[in-house]
Amino acid sequence: MERVVLPSHLIEQMLAQACASPHAEICGLVTARNGHPSRCIAVRNVAPQPQRLFSMDPQQQIAAMRSMREQGEELYGIYHSHPQGPAEPSTTDIQQAAYPEALYLIIALNGERRPQLRAYRISDGKTRAVQLLTDPAEGHGS
Ligand SMILES: [Zn+2]
Q1: What is the set of domains in the chain, with CATH numbers?
Q2: What is the tens place of the pLDDT at every residue in 66-104?
Q3: Does the reported pTM lie above 0.90?
Q4: Which of 61, 72, 78, 93 could cysteine-pair with 89, CB 3.0–4.6 Å?
Q5: For residue 142, how far is its CA from the centre of ligand 1 (angstroms)?
Q6: Are 75 and 18 within 8 A, CB to CB?
Q7: What spacing in Å lies between the alpha carbon of 73 and ligand 1's midpoint?
Q8: How far apart are the CA of 48 and the centre of ligand 1, in A?
Q9: Distance of CA 51 to CAs 83, 84, 106, 121, 133, Å?
Q10: Phi/psi at 16 (nearest 5 deg)?
Q11: Residue 72: exposed, middle, or buried by beta-carbon count in 10 A (0-12, 13-18, 19+)?
């Protein structure tokens, strides 16, 4: 199984954003610098049924992509939450996955007791689980 290492502060940021929105899916982008995940950029969910779907605000998404390019970063991942469902891509998620090179991160709230973050690659309608490892040292120099 493919493995990726994510800095723990990025994981905490995504989980916090998801937990703060128990009734609507949240979404955003993860950027990378030289292949290393560096920032999370939250993007507003403008889906008509945000409790079970996400659709990134197009203007915010464009602004996030521009900010990324300006800072010499690339797209690393796309994250969203499932307030009710499991931390697995839904049929709609698989159909709408447009970035085969991106890591798809899904946060399940599990009733807010113990939120869970899982990662996938999605391409050609197929989903592959990716093992997530945490790097707690990230963000303290180096
Ligand atoms: Zn989903």
Answers
A1: 3-135 (3.40.140.10)
A2: 999 999 999 999 999 999 999 999 999 999 999 999 999
A3: yes
A4: 93
A5: 34
A6: no
A7: 25
A8: 14
A9: 7, 8, 14, 23, 28
A10: -65, -40
A11: exposed
